[in-house]
Structures are given as C-alpha cells and as structure tokens.
Amino acid sequence: MCAWTCCSRASATARTCCSASRTPDAAPPGVPLSPHITRQRRRQRRLLGWMTAVFILAAVAIVIAAPRAALPTIESAKALTLTLISRLVLPPAESALPAAPAAAGPELQPAAPAALPTAVPVRTRWEFGELLPYVVQSGDTLPALAARFNQTTDAILKANPALAVFQSTLPPGRAINIPASYAPLLGSAFHMLPDSAVVYAEAPGNLAEQLQNFDGWVAHRHEPAYSARDGSWDEARPSWDLINEVALQYSVNPRVLLALLEYRSGLLRNADPPAGAARNPLRLPPDTRTGMANQLEWAAAQLNDGYYAWRAGTQVELRLLDGSVQRIDPWQNAGTVALLQLFSQLEQPAEFEQSIGPQGFAATYQQLFGDAFAGALLLQPANLRQPAFTLPFKPGVIWSLTGGPHPAWGSSLPWAAMDFAPPALAGTCGQSNEPVTAMAPGVIVRNGYATALLDTDGDNNEHTGWVIFYFHLRSDSIAAVGTRLAAGDALGVASCEGGRSTGTHVHVARKYNGEWLAADSAVAFDLGGWRAVSDGTAYKGRLSFALPAREVRACQCVSDQNRVSW
Question: Higher-confidence residue: 467 or 83?
C-alpha cells in the first residue's frame, strides 16, 4: 500500500489510485478524523471487544470440558475443526486395495500416543424434503441408504438419476443428495473406526510376538479351550492362539479384540490386572459367558451383527440396556456401527456414551495402534460382482440343498452360507465318498479341523479378494495348504465333523476383502446360475435358476423339492 506522504506528492491520478487502496479510516498524520469516521472506528472497536469476549468464553469452555487436554494452538484448532467437519459430513477417505498385495501385512505394533479429538460432532436439524449431502461409502447400496435415511430407493434415484447404472454396490466417494424424510434425534456422528479396521482385511502378522511387545497379562495368559484346528480340548492354550482363532472364524480384525481387552480391563499393557480378569476380562454382566475365549467370541458376534445389519440396512436403531432406543446416525460407517452394537449390549447408557465418544474406545485404539483412518482400505468397489462359481460338487451328480442362507460362523450375521448334502445322506451322519469340489480355480490358503479356504485371486492371502470358505469336511480328506485347484477338482469329502451338525453335508460361504457377503444380497451368491434366495428365516430359502425357470427349496430331507445338480 502506498504511504500517505507518497500519495500527497503524487499526481491527481496517482492520488486517486492510492486513496482507493487505503483503509476507510486512514488519514495523514496530524489530520483529525471526520465525525463519520470516528463513529465507524468506535463501532469497529465495540465489535472487536465482543469477538474477544466470545473467544475467551469459548476457550474457558474448552478447558472445562477437557481439563486433561492441552490448550490448542490456532493451527491445531484449525486442524481439529477440519477433522471434525470431515467426519461429520464425509466418510473417512479410504485407499484402494493393491491389485496384488503382499502375503505378509503390517504387524500389530504399539504406536506412539497421538493427539485425540476432544469434541463430538453434532448434527443440525433439517427440513422435510431438504436435500441432504452424503458421500457414498464402501459397500453402500441403494436399499441400505433408503433404510438408514427412512427414504425410498425411488426418491433417492429421482434426486440422483446417475445412480441407476449401479446394480449392486454404489461408487465410494461419489457425492449425492438424499431427500430428508424427518428430523429424528440421532445417535453419535463420531466415526470410531473405519470398516477395514473392524473386519479382517489385512494379512496377519505374528500375533504372539506382537503381544510380547505390550508385555501385559494377555501376553502370558494360557487357558483351557476347544481347538478348531484339530477338534481337541487343550488345557493350556496361549492367549494369542485363542485371539487369532476367534479373529479368523468371525473374520474380525484382531486389533479390535486386543483394544477391547485393553479398554475394558487394561489387560494388554498391565501385567497385574484387576481381580477377576481371568474369569471376566470384558466385564460382562454376571451369569454370562466366562473366560477370554468365550467372551471374545461373544464380542465378535456382536460386532458382526452390527456391521452386517448396517450393511444390509436391516438395523437402523440401537436398543440400549435400559430399554431406550437410539436411532443410528445415517451418515455412520459399518465399522463404527459394529462397535455401537457391541457397546450398547455391554454398558449402561451413561458409560455407553463415554465409550463411543472420542475419549472412549477410539482413544484407546489410537494409543495402541495409531490412527486407523490414515491407513484405511476400500473394501468394496462400485458395482461389485462375484466371479463365476459352480456348485461345490461334481457335475451330473444330484445333491440336496439342506440349508438356505444362514450364518457363515456361529449364530451371528451375515447369513452368508449355504449347505449341501451328498446323495441319500441328508439328515444323517453317514459316510460319503462323493468329493466336495473347488467352486472356482484357486489355491488352498488355510485348512484345519473340518475347514478349508480357497483363495481365488492367486495372492495366497485369505484377507484380500474372493475367498471361498468350506466347513464340515472330513479332516483326513482336506487338500493341503498350497494345493492349486481347477474348478471342479476335489478338495475334500463332506462329513459331520466341525461342531454341531444334523447330518453329513458341506457348508460354503464367500468373503471379499475380509468381509463376509450375505448369500441373498446385492452381490448375489451365484452357483453356476443358481442364485441364493432367503425367505427371512435362517436355513430356509431356496436356490433359483432364471432360464429355464427352476427352483429348489432347502429342507433337512431327501426329496424332489431340494434336489440340485449341474
């Protein structure tokens, strides 16, 4: 800006230009301000005073609300504001999985404590019919979004005609508008963890070594438990083995289970835990499951129930332990809803609100493993399609459909599995010599008691790409790890092994990037043209073939209604 003295000696044209660049109340030294300018300056000073007072009150409120947090600098406050806004309106950014990820993933190492957010975003009310901004998250479908926002798929399509081309999953990162239906009181908008931190979407490291890094109670704990590897009872299984088994069975990330043990009882970093930790490490209500393995199984089932119900749009509310109902914020992600479901069944409302906030479970996780959002993975791309799979037996042989869509593991969601019995053995535990076959080309990446997993993308990693899970195989018949198979090659024989079984059969389910996929979903379980259809009851339902139109209905029997072949 020109100095006044320069302007006073300049030509008329220069003075005009220079005067235009000065502030309105500028004046040469020694020249009094006009009354108009004086009043304007007083107004400016009063405004500055009010702004200063508001800033001081806000700073005091921050200190009172978070007495243990360091006072923010201007730059840190800006960064925090941007973080909260992004987590309020937008889902966390997720990076795409590599085309051919390495077999060994990052190990679970303790991370340096990181700065944590100190406020929970709050939604503002909206008017009926208002277009609400939404950014598509991995795995979103039109029916699920309609359920979460209490809208119809037609209304969403009318507001976003370009979405009509997406027949299964929507494109992550796409900004869309969703017409508001009503303005309910919503639950927390805080995103606790990304989806890829909750499902088992990363290759495992050496869990035993990782626990030793924390050197707490869990690292040295042994307890008796049933082994899914060989069906035996082990009197002294190490904790890392128990945690790893639960993680693999439910396809739940072991970091979540470790952080849960730490958050509830301090068992990861504390070598001298509170009394009763061995019997009740998660501090479950009395007269429920006891022991670490049993309680982690319960927790994994709760996580899966929340995660996959949100995925499907079949759960939009939480019922808390006091009987109250809380509608889930429709902008939430599946990983966070999994944790909301878990803590809603674990804690009374006041403790629940603390656990799901920035200073609760998410803070413990971040202290242990760092910012999960920084390395989040995109699990489901737009228009996800299953590759070609066949039925799990030889062509020309008639098997029976004995189980329609039902849980992939245990009794929790999703209903990802289908059951097939070899000829004449439905409902009985007889011996079969009919082979169970590879449903697609692939390699056996894991086997165990009654179990085989077929990796179809060739990276030897069961946590990425398409993987087929087989259960209830006769253990002495299962193909060895590393065996490469063509579609139709034998990989085992059906049996009654593997826990509860009402008869000789094979149980098959799919995973994609660590996520179980419901059999009857936007990404249909297609077995050589036979598509799985649920009737709303586990194990019921049918297989439907389009052309020529045929269907077979699930039944624990041998009859014409459930006979299927290819």
Answer: 467
